[in-house]
Amino acid sequence: MAANFPSTPTIGDTVTIENITYKWSGTTWNIISRGIVAPVVQSNNGTIDLSKGNYHKILIDSGNNSVTVSFTNVFPGSSKWFLELNVSDSYTITWPDSVIWEAATAPTAIENQTLILEFYTPDGGTNIYGVESINRDETPAYVFQGSVSGYTSGGYVFPAIRRNQIEKFSFTSNGNATDVGDLTQGMLAATGQSSSTHGYTSGGSGPSGHVNTIDKFPFATDANATDIADLTQIRYGAAGQSSTESGYNSGGFAPPNVTTIDKFPFATDTNATDVGDITQARYGPTGQSSSENGYASGGLYGIPRNIIDKFPFATDANATDIADLSITKSDTAGQSSSESGYTSGGQTRIPPAPAFATNVIDKFPFAADANATDVGDLTQARQAMAGQSSTGNGYTSGGTLGDFPPTSYNIIDKFPFASDANATDVGDLTAGYSGTGAGQQV
């Protein structure tokens, strides 16, 4: 590099080589600044290594909301760098003592904003001056799918044990679930909803009978659920849906079977309100969620049904029957990609009829009101499973074959959204059986 410097410089001359600007002092070339180089994403890590570049990013979300920042490998002399904070959750951040903030206060961002900070040091990091460069709203389009973990909450162990476990399994690698918390009581046939920060388990049948409870548990830490609100009526075996702002609980058995669509807010712990009806009262439909609509597919009304109902998130309104599943079934698991809804497994006949569980994975489009098609198979025909959705895959956990006494499974099946293909067995729940559990994801 020395060969690129002028051989006879005068005091104050500058040279820029590979994004680094040097200034001649009369005796040496000193670094006075570094140009912006490729961004370095520092997800879940507050250590900013300036030898790797001078534009860095930290993602602040529910899994990384307490960050301690440090600046390492600061160049001698003067230099400048930028730090981008992408904020999707409330947070605390600790800065080095060497940072001197404009107006003596560190800038902050609220949830769903991007904060870009600019730092300058004249003395190799002894004193670092920080200012807010840009603070812009980064409210993302709603994404129902998770990218970190799937959850199965509650369930049933034959002959009469209602489970209160909250189990978690990874979306980033295949593996078994772990028990990370408890619902407020043992619960079967509840429905699952997911906000960006919490999982919800609503309704169901508890040890003392059917309930209207809405339980809530955090994604950021492994902790027990709390009872934060009530549905408008006691019921179980409903379908669950989630918009960016609210959870929905539709249909189910009170008794009798009901058409109610309940809605409760994620922002506050408040009771649900009745905002509409599905087209037919039925037990055991399953839920799917697009960015704009909730869906309730299948279900039992005397016999299994193939109905796909759709209702809007933007307004409180009744559902319409927009299409059919490829077969009639109830007690299925529901999954959602960004483009399609999936209804996997389920009950096709009423016991004691033989072989009344199916392994069919049905898929229907969100962009058009069209019938579902059979696009693959679960590894095992079964019913009463929980469904989860990552950005790339659908998951079906637990379930029973449906014979009597029931043959139980702890299988976690996974199938791809990008192609129509069969599921593979990628892990196990902690218990031998988790039938009629509720599914969530983050």
Characterization of the model:
It is a single chain. The protein has 442 residues and is mainly beta. The protein folds into two domains: 36-137, Sandwich (Jelly Rolls); 149-441, Neuraminidase, CATH 2.120.10. It is built from no helices and 43 strands. The radius of gyration is 27 Å and the shape is elongated. The relative contact order is 0.11.
Radius of gyration: 27 Å
| Tally of separate helices | 0
Strand order of the largest sheet: 4-6-9-12-13-11
Number of domains: 2
Helix content: under 10%
Largest sheet: 6 strands, mixed
Our estimate of the beta-strand percent is: 35-45%
Query: Which architecture of the largest domain does the CATH hierarchy give at level 2?
Result: 6 Propeller
Overall structural class, as computed from helix and strand content, comes to: mainly beta
According to CATH, what is the topology of the largest domain?
Neuraminidase
- Residue windows where pLDDT falls under 50 for at least 5 positions: none
Q: Please tally the β strands and state the result.
A: 43
Amino- and carboxy-terminal Cα gap: 49 Å
Which descriptor suits the 3D outline?
A: elongated
Q: What is the CATH top level name of the largest domain?
A: Mainly Beta
